[in-house]
Amino acid sequence: MSTCLANGVSLFYELAGTGERLLSISGTGGDLRQKPGLAEGPLGRAFEVLSYDQRGLGRSSVPAWPYAMADFAADAAALLDALGWDDCLVIGLSFGGMVAQELAIRYPERVRRLVLACTSSGGAGGASFPLHELASLPPEERVTRQIGLLDTRWDAAWRRDHPEMVALMAGRMPARAGEPPEGLTNQLAARAQHDTTDRLGRIACPTLVCGGRFDGIAPPANSAQLADRIPGAQLALFDGGHGFFLQDRTAWPAIVAFLGEGAAA
Length: 265
What we know:
This protein is of the alpha/beta class. It contains ten helices and eight strands.
């Protein structure tokens, strides 16, 4: 566990596992203090995983607003510089997938192989659900809406019949009273402006786009449009929602196999 100055931001990062180098870019509100992390699962058993708290989140610093998705990508590139990683495999989940798109477009030489999971291109290619619109809702209502978006099968009837699951999900998504933290507010504002639709053709590395069939945040149609616009991209949909990689046991093996092809090349 370490901290480094990257692109003018103090970024907290962790390295775990052995093997080919893999940069993992987290989703909205990602914080390495939330355990278990991706590096503690299948990825950490197959690769050397670099995970970090993005600007404004976790134990990284909160730079002055404004900034945009390009700044998040520049942070990632600067972190690779700081660690001496010329290039690597990259996986981005949800918001992290948006950052990974910008990274692969703006710094193509840094990304050897790319996984974009439960994410969207924005713009005409389809935007993920505007999570910033939930910030003003009362805490309990916000959690209920989030649960319904995570998996579209979890409607009111499902929530009534599975109170233990609702309690579990609510525990993983703290219902904070008042305004969200500054760093999260800034992240959501940058997310709302994300649009790579007209630049996806610049992604030159082998790419796997994957998502859940019941994702209400990044619907399957968004994954299909991403894969269609990225040259040679593969598309894989799994039996789950926004957290399909936790719901469908075939997801991680497929992702690891795709990334492993780059390691073997």
